[in-house]
TrEMBL record:
Pfam families cross-referenced by the UniProt entry: CN_hydrolase, LNT_N
Keyword annotations of the record: Acyltransferase, Cell membrane, Lipoprotein, Membrane, Transferase, Transmembrane, Transmembrane helix
UniProt GO MF annotations: N-acyltransferase activity
CDD domains, alphabetized: ALP_N-acyl_transferase
Domain of life: Bacteria
Annotated TM spans: 39-58, 65-83, 89-110, 130-157, 169-193, 200-219, 497-519
Organism of derivation: Aliikangiella coralliicola
Membrane topology: Multi-pass membrane protein
Gene this chain is encoded by: lnt
Entries under SUPFAM superfamilies matching the protein: Carbon-nitrogen hydrolase
Protein's recorded name: Apolipoprotein N-acyltransferase
CN hydrolase domain: residues covered: 242-487
Length: 525
C-alpha cells in the first residue's frame, strides 16, 4: 500500500507541469471541505498533497508550491467575488473576471510565502519537524490574512471542521487553534505514510485526534446539561427573525421604498408578542434621520407589546459628516451599535484618494461609511443581553469574543445571545452565503452562546450554543422564523482567555523548532 502511494506521488510530482496541476487541483479540493459541500475530510486530502510537496523534492521553487496550491484554493473558494462584481456591480464579464483573478492572485501570493518559509525552515532543521513548522506558520499566515487591509478571514482551515470530531477544540483554542490541529494532523499523516519512522507519526496523529475527542465529549455533555437546564427553568427567549427577500436591484431604488417598508411591517404584524424581533442588515434603505416617522412608529409598537426590535439601518452624523453602518434597538431600551469592521469596496474604498474612480466604475451606492470610532458594547435589555454583529463582523472571532467579555468586566449580566444581521443578496447563488453562515456557527461554538441570524434573502437561522444549526428558512423566500431559544450560557476556555490557547500552541511549537534548528546547526559544525 505504501509503495503504491509513493509511486503515485512520484508520478504527480515528476515534472513541473504535473506538479503545478497536482497542487492546483489539491488546492481546489480545500474549499469543498467547507459549506455548502461540507466534505470536511477533503481538507486532509488537500493538505496531504500540499505537505507532501513541502517535504519532498519537487521540480518547483518553494514559493511556487504554495502559490499554485493557493490559486486552486481561492479560485474555487472565493468564486462568489465574481458573482458580486458582475451580477450586482454590473461590471462586464471580462472586467469582473479580471478583478476576481487579481483578487485570487493576491491571496495566493501569501500561500506562496507560507510554502517558502516552511521549506526554508525545514532545511534548517529536519523534514520531521514539518509537524510543528507547517501548523505554526499556517496559523501565522491566517493571522496575517485576517488583518492585512482590514482583513479577509475567509477559508480559515478550522471552519471546515465545524461538523467534524475535531470541532470542540474550538472551545479551547478558537478557530485559529483548530486550524493548527488540522494542519498538524495532516502533516503527521503525511510523515506516517512517507517517512521511514512512520509508526511514530501515526502515534502523533492519533494523540492529537484523541485530545480532540476528549474535548468533544466534555463540551457535548456540558452543553447538553446546561441547555436542558435552561429549558427546564424556562430560561428561554422568544425570538422572531424576519426575512423580507427584497431584490438587490430594488433595495436602494426610491421607487420601491414604500413597498419595502410595507413588506417589513406585514411580515412583522404577528410577531410583536415575541421578546425580540430582528430585521436584517440595512432593512430600512435610508438614513435613520430621514425616516424618524417610521422609527417612532416601530418604537411605539415595541413598547406597547413589551417587545424589542433590532434592525439594521445606516446612520449619518451631521455634526461630523460621517456615515455609519448601524444596528438600532427599539423598545423600552433604545440603543445603537456601530459596525466596527467594514467590507472593502462594499462599504468603503481602501486608498480612496487614489481609487475614487473605482466607486463609479463598480457602481457602489453605499461605499462611504466610517467604522465605529468609539468602543462598542453589547445591547443590554431588562431580561437579557445580546452581542450585536453586522454582516462581515461575524467573521472576526476576537471582535465577538471581546463583546462577550465587556459586560462581565462591568459586573453586569453576561451576554446570552449573539444577534447577527446580514444582506447576502450581493452574493447571489454562490458559495458565499453558506461559508458566511458557517463562520457564524463557529462563533457560537467558540463562546458557548446561541446565535440568531436575520438576513434579507437567506440564510436566516437559529444556532444553539454548540454551533449546531437547529432551524433555518429557505433562501429567496419572504418569511419569518420564530422559536424559543434556550438562554444557555457557559463560559468556554476560549471565551475566558481568547487567543491565549493558540498563542501557547505557537510558543511551544516555536521552542521545539528553534531547538531543532540549533541542534542541526550544532551537529553540522
Amino acid at each position: 500500500m505504501l509503495t503504491l502511494i509513493q509511486s503515485w506521488l512520484d508520478w504527480c510530482f515528476k515534472t513541473p507541469l504535473k506538479s503545478r496541476i497536482s497542487l492546483f487541483l489539491s488546492g481546489a479540493l480545500f474549499p469543498l471541505a467547507f459549506a455548502p459541500v461540507n466534505l470536511w475530510p477533503l481538507i486532509f486530502v488537500s493538505f496531504f498533497f500540499f505537505v507532501t510537496a513541502l517535504i519532498r523534492s519537487v521540480p518547483l521553487s518553494p514559493f511556487k508550491i504554495g502559490y499554485y496550491w493557493g490559486l486552486g484554493c481561492f479560485l474555487v473558494g472565493v468564486s462568489w467575488v465574481y458573482v458580486s462584481i458582475h451580477e450586482f456591480g454590473y461590471v462586464p464579464v471580462l472586467g469582473a473576471a479580471s478583478l476576481t483573478l487579481l483578487f485570487v492572485v493576491f491571496w495566493a501570493f501569501f500561500k506562496g510565502v507560507f510554502s517558502y518559509l516552511v521549506i526554508k525552515t525545514i532545511q534548517m532543521s529536519s523534514r520531521s519537524m514539518v509537524i510543528l513548522i507547517a501548523p505554526t506558520l499556517w496559523v501565522l499566515s491566517e493571522f496575517l490574512q485576517s488583518s492585512i487591509f482590514s482583513g479577509f478571514p475567509w477559508l480559515l482551515a478550522g471552519y471546515s471542521q465545524i461538523d467534524s470530531p475535531l470541532s470542540s477544540l474550538a472551545t479551547w483554542f478558537g478557530v485559529y487553534g483548530l486550524s493548527w490541529f488540522v494542519v498538524a494532523i495532516a502533516a503527521a499523516i503525511v510523515c506516517g505514510l512517507t517517512r521511514p519512522e512512520g509508526r511514530l507519526y501515526w502515534g502523533v496523529a492519533a494523540t492529537l485526534m484523541g485530545v480532540a475527542l476528549i474535548a468533544r465529549v466534555t463540551l457535548t455533555d456540558t452543553a447538553a446539561i446546561k441547555q436542558q437546564t435552561a429549558l427546564n427553568e424556562k430560561n428561554s427567549l422568544d425570538v422572531a427573525l424576519v426575512q423580507p427577500n427584497i431584490a438587490q436591484e430594488k433595495k436602494w431604488d426610491r421607487r420601491y421604498f414604500a413597498e419595502i417598508i410595507e413588506i417589513l411591517f406585514q411580515e412583522s404584524e404577528q410577531l410583536w408578542s415575541a421578546d425580540l424581533v430582528v430585521w436584517p442588515e440595512g432593512a430600512i434603505p435610508a438614513y435613520a434621520h430621514q425616516v424618524r416617522d417610521i422609527t417612532y412608529d416601530l418604537q411605539q409598537r415595541a413598547i406597547q407589546n413589551n417587545s424589542h426590535l433590532i434592525l439594521g439601518i445606516p446612520e449619518y452624523d451631521q455634526a461630523r459628516e460621517l456615515s455609519f453602518v448601524a444596528l438600532k434597538s427599539f423598545g423600552e431600551q433604545s440603543q445603537t451599535y456601530h459596525k466596527q469592521v467594514l467590507v472593502p469596496f462594499g462599504e468603503y474604498v481602501p486608498l480612496e484618494k487614489w481609487l475614487r474612480g473605482l466607486i463609479k466604475f463598480l457602481d457602489l451606492p453605499m461605499s462611504g461609511f466610517t467604522p465605529a470610532d468609539v468602543p462598542q458594547v453589547p445591547m443590554q435589555f431588562d431580561n437579557f443581553t445580546v452581542i450585536p454583529a453586522i454582516c462581515y463582523e461575524i467573521a472576526y472571532p476576537e471582535i465577538i469574543r471581546e463583546l462577550s467579555a465587556v459586560n462581565q468586566s462591568a459586573n453586569k449580566a453576561s451576554p446570552q445571545l449573539i444577534v447577527t444581521v446580514s444582506n447576502e443578496a450581493w452574493f447571489g447563488e454562490s458559495l458565499g452565503p453558506y461559508q458566511h453562515m458557517q463562520m457564524a456557527r463557529m462563533r457560537s461554538l467558540e463562546l458557548g452562546i446561541p446565535l440568531v441570524r436575520s438576513t434579507n434573502d437567506g440564510i436566516t437561522a437559529v444556532v444553539d450554543a454548540r454551533g449546531t444549526l437547529i432551524k433555518q428558512l429557505p433562501r429567496y423566500q419572504q418569511s419569518s422564523l420564530r422559536m424559543s431559544v434556550p438562554m444557555t450560557n457557559f463560559a468556554t476556555y476560549y471565551r475566558r482567555w481568547g487567543l491565549a490557547g493558540v498563542y501557547t500552541l505557537l510558543a511551544i511549537s516555536s521552542v521545539f523548532i528553534v531547538l531543532s534548528v540549533w541542534y542541526r546547526k550544532t551537529k553540522g559544525s
